Amino acid sequence: MWGPIDVVATTGSTNADLSSAAHDGAPGGRVLVAGEQTAGRGRLARTWASPAGASVSMSVLLQPKQDWSRWGWLSLLAGLAVSSSLEALAPEGVRVALKWPNDVLLDGGKVCGILSERVESAAGLRAVVGIGINLTLTRDQLPVPTATSLALAGFDVTATDVVAGVLTEFERYYRVWEAEGTLRDDYVARCASIGTPLTISVAGEPPRSGVGRGVDVDGRLEVETAAGLERFAVGDVIHARLA
Fold this sequence. Notes:
Blueprint: E1 5-8, H1 14-23, E2 31-34, E3 37-41, E4 47-50, E5 55-62, H2 73-89, E6 96-99, E7 103-106, E8 109-110, E9 112-121, E10 124-134, H3 159-180, H4 184-190, E11 197-201, E12 208-215, E13 221-225, E14 228-232, E15 236-239
Parallel strand pairs: 1-2
Antiparallel strand pairs: 2-5, 3-4, 5-10, 6-7, 7-8, 9-10, 11-12, 11-15, 12-13, 13-14
Helix pairs in contact: 2-3
């Protein structure tokens, strides 16, 4: 599924680079890995910068066969792939959790950022999914106090280990999604937001508190609030047990 896989020392944004390649007609399967990213972007327009060698910054270019209305699953798929691959590499006793929609947590600290984008080109629609994983960041280098890194969590891995694991798991989940158009069962099985008291904040709206009850066929989070069962396509989630 993957190829070519390009590795560069530094770039502004791996997502921007692959988006440009898509506009030029590049087919799906291309992977770009950077040792340093200086102008990365995260979910909700947040910036994502990585010091040289301290993080794994990677993007994949996809040419999905599924109808674009199902492409919202791609960012959740990436979270599944990262959480599953890190769980296989984790030291004994480290808890790997997936918080809706795609935050990967190590003992409650966020270790990963994910951004998926749709790209329109003359050759047709493409998707670019970017993944940034904190590899060796120290506490002083962390962007926020609630973040962590693989090194701080006790992982003894290389960037190559991480990239190989993520690509393997991404392909596994991607093939299921291409065949079925959803990853609801796989996602529900791994998502720590389900069955957990939480608060969700959506821009321009007051925060709502409740209990995560599941995700629907489109990956929207289902939360039981005082108003009943509500569904959210976007939002920031805080787990009460991890606050």
